[in-house]
Amino acid sequence: MMHISATVNGTHRMGEVEPRLLLVHWLRENLGLVGTPIGCDTSNCGACTVLLDGQSVKSCNMLAVQADGSNITTIQGLGPEGEMGTIQKAFKECHGLQCGYCTPGMVTAAADLLAENPDPTEEEIREGLHGNLCRCTGYHNIVKSVQLAAAEMRGAK
Amino acid sequence: MTDTIEEAPASIGQPKRRKEDARLLMGETEWTDNIQLPGTLHMAFLRSSIAHAKILRIDTSAAKLAEGVVHVYTGEDFPGQPGSTCVWPVTADIVMTHYPAICTDEVRYGGDVVAVVLATERYLAADALDLIDVDYEPLPAVVDMEEALKEGSPLVHESAGTNRCYTHNMPCGDYEAAKAKADVVVSRRFINQRLIPSPMETRAVVAAPQGMADEITLWTSTQIPHVLRVLLALLTGIPENQIRVVAPDVGGGFGGKLQISREEVLALILAKRLGRPVKWSETRSENMVAMHHGRDQIQDIEIAATKDGKLLGMKVDLLADMGAYLQIITPGTPLLGMFMYSGIYKMEALDFTCTGVYTNKTTTDAYRGAGRPESTFAIERIMDELAAELGMEPMELRKLNWVKHEEFPFTNVAGLTYDTGNYEAATERALELFGYDELRAEQAARRAAGDPVQLGIGISTFTEMCGLAPSRTLGALNYVAGGWEHCTLRVLPTGKVELVTGTAPHGQGHATVWSQIAADVIGVPFEDIEVIYGDTGRAPYGMDTYGSRSLAVGGQAIKVAGERLVEKARIIAAHQLEVSPEDIEFNKGVYSVKGDPEKSNTIQGIAFAAFTAHNLPPGVEPTLHGEATVDPIDFSYPHGTHLAAMEVDTETGKVTLRKYVAVDDCGIQINPMIVEGQVHGGLAQGIAQAMYEGALYDNDGNLLTASMGEYLLPSSADLPSFITDRTVTPSTTHPLGTKGIGEAGAIASTPAIINGVVDAIRHLGVNDVLMPASPQNVWRAIQAAQNGGAA
């Protein structure tokens, strides 16, 4: 077992973990942060995307021990406490989700995308989110959601 | 008593933002895999790595001693226990076969279950699988349907003596007579390839002794909690009244979760046997082989017409791959399209035959559209081929043959009565949005210039059937259940409302849409309604969600339940206002005396009076609720016109979807925003069948596309934005005038894409392209045509 500690959604968390434990299982099963789901086992789908020191990562594709000392934000820490943030509100407004299973990863990946590129074109959004699969929406309204969120965030500055 | 109520706008028809979303967006979700109960045993399955083999010996001794392992079971521990069942024996002589919970003597597809490990931790259960030693004696695998039907083929089920599961023939009219009159007969073989449903949430099950007395609760990622409860009781012998099935948040289904699975059966049995919680969370790679697949048909289609293009008849000869076993509606799935092969067109005869075939592959079953995508593909593809043969413009050929607006209601060649439709209006709108004439001009210019990138236009003018189903119809088709739906509406003493539905949503937005319907029918605020579903303990009656039935059938139950509630409250209101019920008007939640509107009460006020029961009229029981269980009188028939502009690089075979227009007619839209979302998602799946997806097996029956790395689900970068619109032709079979929209996009789009691809390269001699229209498949089709033979 190895000791790890990390700041998760603004709170200091620590624990003893097996070296092989995936980060997503640490978040879900040890810390109870079940808002981050698992969609595949080949790092294709992106449902488990979280922010690690501000960068989006697929939490099924790294070990918990690799996240030692990092600052992690999951979907449950993305908005203000108990509220939706700008991107989440835009997804609701534009019907950018149906079953909601890809949504935590999609919203988190969008947050990373907009941090890097506050005014993306449709093509840049489509390319930027291509590591996150959705089976319900056909992506049409996800693109619109990200466009709306980008406009709102630029307007807020 | 007087109340002033602000006039609320009608809720039906508004693009209400979804009630479901805030929770889903903040990660406050209840996926089955989230459930962590004390003392849980984690279940892992050892699956066959080969498609067909005798099991000679299974040694579980090392696994039993492994860290954390509590039990290891093989088929010997569950003699005769079925792991699934088929509720639709489509013909009297169908060859039914046993689907074991765990295989004992033989495995029949790669992924079949040979042992189960229960361990204290998920990782330890997976570790122990590696310690189980199985000796197999490989048997020849049956992979190809036509080979499977040949004399001397190896058999998937030796005891059956054949790989032919059934042959179902439905002759409508006299096809041979129609053909004899024809000037032109066009035949084609179309392949509707095998697809993997791939909801983003894989399957997961938790079973735990919990609740009253001997009750066991089974949480499962399913589309069918109610049907599942009945089937679990029948298959396990555990009394139905001791089983509670809960479908918590369900992350998509697309038919893949319309099933009773061996994993659910074993979880239930083991939780009962061991008296502690049992949990299974499927991995994605496991899901690719173990959840049922969809489609997989060879379609031999023949159409006969006059030289002027008037359709006379159609012959449909299908081979449908069942896979290794029959599950819930495996044999019936290809037949769900059998009445729809004539599409929107008039013809004299349809001769339909389908043969179901066993192979050593994953079982097939419902996948979005289930039967109708296949029938729509066949008719819409063959219409383009016929147009080419006749030298007619393909849209003109369609217009010549479709049912005209003034001809409804129209009984099609297979005996279905299309209640309403307006194919002219939908087509006119689609042509306008598409810029049809301009694109045809561009196509001609590119062709004349010999542009290596050619342009094609794909058309799909389709209809489909929603609203499974009038129970008598299902009975006539040998289906062993009904097709009704239930709703209970309760106005609670505080005025808040509970709407209990038998539908089981997994992304469709029922909480929002059902609230909109109830808000208008009983006149309460949309926000005050809580929708309860997916739990046989809280919503005991229902037939669940599949086949675009939820609004088409469940919506009727909401309306009727609401009307009954309103009538009960009217009697109470009349009593308390001291007039007769006929003298009471009901408008937007307020009961008032005709001619004296100051004398009134609200539905909430009456709910409280019904709760206190201090002053009820004689014979009226306390509480204010309305219930309805509604059997639909008929199906509904959404339709539409879809157009695709396809670019094909004739040198590389690369296909690009440049523009897609979908004009759908689903009748009255309760929530246009959700309708549009359903269209988008359906389009993505139908386009994916045409362009990207396909489950491939090698000759030994190994699934080659066994992970998301190999099975190409389209990403945002693989699809364009869509241009969508609706025409509104209300259904007359549904009291709200709605039809259904969950599958339309998936049904219509596949032939539109392939018609467009073929149209782009028809001048090169191509008249079909295998799906998916990958660069390889398209390049090969071009080479084959250019070389006058196979590439």
Task: Please tell me about this protein's structure.
The complex is a heterodimer of chains A (157) and B (791). In chain A, 34% of the residues lie in helices and 16% in strands. Chain A is of the alpha+beta class. Chain A folds into two domains: 2-77, Ubiquitin-like (UB roll) (Roll), CATH 3.10.20.30; 86-156, DNA polymerase, domain 1 (Orthogonal Bundle). In chain A, helix 2 packs across helix 5. Chain A is globular. Chain B is an alpha+beta fold and 791 residues long. Chain B contains 19 helices and 28 strands. Chain B has a seven-stranded mixed beta sheet with strand order 3-5-1-12-9-10-11, sandwiched between helices. In chain B, helix 14 (510-522) packs parallel to helix 15 (550-577) and helix 15 crosses helix 16.
Number of helices in the DSSP assignment of chain A: 5
Strand order of the largest sheet of chain B: 3-5-1-12-9-10-11
> Which fold name fills CATH's third level, the topology of the largest domain in chain A?
Ubiquitin-like (UB roll)
Shape of chain B: globular
Overall SS class of chain B: alpha+beta
**Architecture per CATH nomenclature, i.e. the level-2 architecture of the largest domain in chain A:** Roll
Output the CATH class name of the largest domain in chain B.
Alpha Beta
Number of H- or I-type helical stretches of chain B: 19
**CATH level-four homologous superfamily name of the largest domain in chain B:** Aldehyde oxidase/xanthine dehydrogenase, molybdopterin binding domain
> Spans of chain B with pLDDT under 50 lasting ≥5 residues?
1-8
Instruction: Name the structural class of chain A.
Output: alpha+beta
Strand order of the largest sheet of chain A: 2-1-5-3-4
Q: Could you tell me the radius of gyration of chain B in angstroms?
A: 28 Å
| Oligomerization state | heterodimer
Name the biggest interface: A-B, 59 and 57 residues
The average pLDDT of chain A is 97
What is the N-to-C succession of helices and strands of chain A? Answer: EEHEEEHHHH
